[in-house]
Amino acid sequence: MNARDVVLGRVRDALAAAPPEPVTVPRDYRGRRELPDEQRMELLVDRLGEYRADVYRCSVAETAATVAEALGDVRLVAVPGGLDGSWTEELTGRVEVDSAELPVRWLEDVDGVVTSSAVTCAETGTVFLDASADQGRRALTLVPDLHVCVVDLSSVVVGVPEAVGRLDPVRPTTMISGPSATSDIELDRVEGVHGPRTLRVVVRVDG
Amino acid sequence: MSSAFLGIPTPPPRAPYATGHLRGDQSFPDAAHTALDNTQQRRNLGKATATIRGKRDRMADELPDWEELRSAGAALKADVLARLPELLERFEREVTERGGVVHWARDADEANEIVTRLVAEKGSDEVLKVKSMATQEIGLNEHLESAGIAPVETDLAELIVQLGADRPSHILVPAIHRNRAEIRDIFLREMPGVDPNLDDDPVRLAEEARKYLRSKFMSTRVAISGANFGVADTGTLSVVESEGNGRMCLTMPETLITVMGIEKLVPSFTDLEVFLQLLPRSSTGERMNPYTSMWTGVTEGDGPGEFHLVLLDNGRSATLADGVGREALQCIRCSACLNVCPVYERTGGKAYGSTYPGPIGAVLTPQLAGMHESRDDPNASLPYASSLCGACYDVCPVKIDIPSLLVELRHQHVEQSRYTAEAAMMRASSLAMSSAKRFTKAQRASRLGRVLGGADGRISALPPPLNAWTSARDLPAPPKRTFREWWDSEDGREAVRAARREAERGES
Fold it and tell me: Which residues of chain B lie closer than 8 angstroms to A43, CB-CB?
């Protein structure tokens, strides 16, 4: 008998030895919460601030200028193939488009990356990336040291259940809550271990 | 199929005795004696556990529906256990349909062989590792090394433990027993290409680890991870982390191998909305950990082109067979119970001899690996490594009633060890207490114990086998007279008369 049948057989035997009661899952925790724009914004800015992520507010019309300000004086910027080209129009550095054909190693020379985002949870200050065309493959937002992420306020939800409800399970998803960090040495928090050391979130209040 | 039910189900086997890390080489009290002498470890653990439990309390108190989330989390994991066969089959189907390859491992030996074969087939002699309890449980690193494959731990604390040829002392912060100066010395001694002028600033130490591992992330072709959750209805896997080493390992190599215990399922993708709130707040005391990765099979043009999932039993089905003890399988490895445990805080994790320390380890380890597998099985001491204060139950995000499980395992231990000195004494007391005459005689006999008492009337060392009791506490020496002798004496009668007069005066 193969290992699969053995393990499944054992599990069935185990349950037969002490048959469990059927379980009803109580779902009376909070979900489907809504808050006005200003309150969601305030909550998100507060939470991102606690993670020491930099927050920039702007309107859709100010996107290019704000992205340029958030990136600062960097030499080489990478963007995903599906990013709105107008967002990077005011950058001083060179802009290159990432693609699956390029070896991941090229990202080591990149100074900063600009992406969009799928959904954001205000209560936990978490930005969700789902590898859509305007967010790129996962390596793009991982290898470079500076990540500028554009979030539309309309995509900001209050809590975790509302955010999970907007995800597509099949897409590779990364949840980001502040810059990479460790507390492994004497519980002292050190930011920037392997992921980007700097996370800058541009929130478009009318986006 | 063994599922053809023939009346009496076969009890599933425990994890192999000697493979992996589910059994120490000495009992908990013996190991604890050594650990208690380590003042640095006690100081570090005291600071770490106090800090993390303070943060956890604030994060749990912040959510008005924390108790509702706990109830949902507990019910979801109980539901997983109740429907485990169908959920495992569904999970396997979903992972396979999305391009993953599912392997099943009866025990640690089989899982080690599968993983090692997969790595060898890639022609790789080095493999990256994401911090994983399951691979530590099965002793995967040792097995890979014996096959000439070098595993590289990429979590900073695990790297410190690995380079220092040490063992972890906490589930969440495994190197918490080390000071920064020791970590600097370990890096200088063991880390290839390290800056010889390295100081002990944690920022500099983390920077060195980043440099060292960056080249590995860029060049190593195979990575091995565990999984925090496997979603049955979509085949999605999830790893929750802080440093980004997890993202690196899950994204950069050509091949990803994930080792996951069969109990780590959640029924549906939506259920992550519960656990993604419970886990970070209970574990690190954060609203959310910096990074959580979710992936389903293989995605063209993003991440590893090959994905293998190893589903591990290794004593889990044996644990499931116990209708009471199976509750331990609900654990989501947050380590909140370690941080509130007065025993763990003083002894540290190594004293438990298992990958799973603290209160949850004391109920999980003896069930996964057994506690009567040899004479003086060290695991038999684990259910007693607790004062039953109940703090672990209060903080458990999936409401595992650890104190009740500890009592149940103590009961099972006593039942199965009928010939211990303790069992013999209990039988003798039962005999003595069953008749007034025998009880009086036994009490008189106990006066002999007075010769053991010191000038302060306390016994601090009993002869074997009773020394187990006095190794950790004093015993009052038996009194000169028993209560019954006092009651029958003249001064006893006088004291009773005086008390009666007092009571009558109070009434009138």
Answer: none
CATH class (in words) of the domain with range A29-204? alpha beta
Q: Which of A10, A142, A145 to mutate to test the interface with B (most CBs of B within 10 A)?
A: A10
Flag whether residue B89 sits within 8 Å of chain A, measured between CB atoms: yes
Q: Which residue has the tokens 């002869």?
A: B463
B16: nearest Cα among B228, B312, B224, B311: B312
**A49-83: buried (b, 16+ CB within 10 Å) or exposed (e) per residue?**
eebebebbebeeebbbebbbebbeebebbbbbeeb
Residue B477 lies in a domain: no
Smallest CA–CA distance from A132 into chain B, residue? B302
Interhelix angle B84-97/A3-17, rounded to 10 degrees, is 150
Quote the tokens at residue B96.
Answer: 């396979």
Tell me the domain boundaries of chain A: 29-204
Per-residue pLDDT reduced to its tens digit, A24-72 = 999 999 999 999 999 999 999 999 999 989 999 999 999 999 999 999 9
What is the rounded CA–CA span in Å between residue B358 and residue A5?
34
For the record, the structure tokens of A203 come out as: 């929130």
Q: Residues of A with CB below 8 A from B156's CB?
A: 182, 184-185, 193
Residue B82 belongs to domain with CATH number: 3.40.50.10420
* Residues across chain A: 207
Label each residue of B400-457 as H, E or C.
Answer: CCHHHHHHHHHHHHHHHCCCCHHHHHHHHHHHHHCCHHHHHHHHHHHHHHHHHCCCCC
**List of chain B residues with pLDDT < 70:** 1-8, 418-423, 465, 508
ipTM associated with this complex: 0.97
All residues of chain A having their beta carbon less than 8 Å from the beta carbon of residue B301 are 100, 137
Pick from A5, A25, A182: CB nearest B206: A182
Of B139, B141, B305, give the one whose Cα is nearest residue B221.
B305
Structural domain tally of chain B?
1
Chain B residues lying within 8 Å of A131, measured CB to CB = 299, 302
What contacts B207, CB < 8 A, 6 or more positions away? none
Side-chain-side CA neighbours of residue B486 (13 Å): 8
